[in-house]
Amino acid sequence: MKPRIRINRFLACSGLGSRRKCEELIRRGTVTLNGVIVERLSIEVDPETDEVKVDGQRVAPSSKSIVLVINKPAGVLSTVTDSHGRRTVIDIAGEQGYRDRLFPVGRLDLDTTGILILTNDGNLAYRLTHPGFKVEKTYHVSVENEVTDKSVTALESGIRKGSFETQPCKVRILKRRKNRTELEVVLKEGKKRQVRRMFAILGYRVAALHRKALGNLEFNDLNIGDIRPLTVKEENRLRELTGLI
Question: Which of 83, 126, 181, 236 has its C-alpha lying 20 to 30 A from 65's C-alpha?
Answer without folding.
Answer: 83
